[in-house]
Amino acid sequence: MKNLSMILMLLVLLLLTMEQVHGFDCEQAKTSIHPCTPFLVGDENEPPASCCSGLHDLKSSAPTVDEQRAACECLKDFATHYPIKHDLALSLPKRCGVYFNFPISKDMNCNDIH
Fold first, then answer.
1. Which tens digits make up the pLDDT trace of 48-102?
2. Long-range contacts of the stretch 27-30 (C-beta < 8 A, 24+)
3. Model-level pTM?
4. Beta-carbon count within 10 A of 30 CB
5. Phi/psi of residue 24, each to 5°?
6. Are the CB atoms for 54 and 28 separated by under 8 Å?
């Protein structure tokens, strides 16, 4: 009986570890939205399909509030590296048909996400 309890405890720990591994990956998110950069800085009039695909991937990679906050912080960091135009960033989700709880901006407050 003692061995069974130990095995069950190890299985729970393994599952918890696996869950953490599948958490939000900021570097992957930045790679996913990088094709949006020419649109966001005003070099292109429309976001390319690869940008919209990346936004869809980003959205699906952050289903929980904690992961959405992590995605927000990640995008906030991304936005600090480029001269992103605020109006274009606000229009991007709608143009790609993806709803986010936050805009892409270096000034967003990620703690406001519920």
1. 999 999 999 999 999 999 999 999 999 999 989 999 999 999 899 999 999 877 7
2. 28/61, 29/58, 29/61, 29/62, 29/71, 29/74, 29/75, 29/78, 30/74, 30/77, 30/78
3. 0.75
4. 16
5. -65, 135
6. no
